[in-house]
Each structure stands twice: as C-alpha cells, then as structure tokens.
Amino acid sequence: MEKTPAGTSVGVDDPYAHVDRCDHCTDEGRCRFAVEQGQRDPAFADARSAEEFRCPVVGEADEAGLTGPWEWRDCPHFRARNRDRECERCGLPERRMAHSDERPLLEEHHLSYRDGSDRELSHEITVYLCRWCHAKVHDSWARIDDDVNPDPEAIAEREGRRSREQEELGFQSAAERFDSDG
User: I need a labelling partner for 141 at 20 to 30 A (CA). Which of 52, 64, 81, 181 fits?
Assistant: First the structure.
C-alpha cells in the first residue's frame, strides 16, 4: 500500500485507480495546461499543439473510455483533485457552517507523495475523507475502497450542524429575540 513520507498508509495500492480525469482535461478531451500554461513547458505545449491540444491519455473524443497512448502516470503535468464534497470512503456529505470556525467534516487526503529523494510531488492526487475515515486510513488498517457506513460520531456531528441550520431558518421576531423578560 502507498505510504506518506511519515510512513503512514494512504489507504490505496494504486492512487491512479481513483482518478476519473485530470484537472487540466476539458470536456472535449483537450489539454488545458498546454493551452493556458504552455510557457511553463514549451516542448510539451508544442507537442500538444501539433495534435490540436488533444490529451495523450484521453485520445479521440468519439471513442469510449481512455484511448490515448499514455497512462495518467505518464503525463508530466497530471493533477487530479476530487471536487465531490463527500467522503470517498463512507459517503458522508460535507456540512459547512457559514461564519463559523468549526472544523470541517471533510478533509483533503493526498493519495500520492514524493517519490524517494525527489523533492517534487510525483503527481497531485487528492480525495476528500471525513475526519473519522481519515484517521482510520492513516492508522494503517482502513482502505479507501472499503464498503463502510459513516461513523456514528460523524453522523451526530452532521446532524447537529443541520439542526443549527434549521434553527437559523426559523422565524423569530425581534421582540421575541431581544425580550429581556423571557
């Protein structure tokens, strides 16, 4: 199983198995990195330009699935950050409180880290895990693809936030809110 620099588990054997698509890939299968940030890697941008900026992993747009000659791990500019705001492991949805300093229910979890002595990240691959699943994964005994339900403490925290949200939506006149007698 993949490990963090501190030696704890990240919960997966292959981080690339949890990737739907690269953050730089457009819906049409084009490489946004080569178009918008080509000056950072002119050789890469020129190669993509010669192929109409087609992503070398995605391949042809009219084909099903990934048909390009590369794998995600082959691309030097690959990055995949999960944008679904629910736990990848147990499915707990995020419930953020506006104007609150409360700790979020979900935390970003990195699936890939530095390769050996290399100072650069190999590729950025992140998912969201609830605080409870995150702790279990880093304690080395849980995997991200385990079929689990949310922890009872996580459900209680989420429902507590939901109740406070509902309370805020209820109407209470100013006279009731600031009544000094009651």
Answer: 81
The last residue of one of the domains, among 40, 60, 76, is 76
Mean local confidence (pLDDT), 57-69 = 75
Q: Model's pTM, two decimal places?
A: 0.77
- Domain annotation covers residue 181: no
- For the stretch 40-50, pLDDT in tens is 999 999 999 99
Residues 106 and 37 in one domain: no
Contact 78, 111 (CB under 8 A): no
79 burial class (0-12, 13-18, 19+ CB within 10 angstroms)?
middle
The residue segments making up the domain with residue 157 are 1-22+78-170
Beta strands 124-130 and 79-81: pairing type? parallel
Buried/exposed code over 6-42 (b: 16+ C-beta within 10 A; e: otherwise): eeebbbbeebeebbebbebbeeebbbebbeeebeeee
Tens digit of each residue's pLDDT (9 = 90 or more) over 105-139: 999 998 876 555 455 557 889 999 999 999 999 88
Q: 129: part of which helix (H) or strand (E)? A: strand 124-130
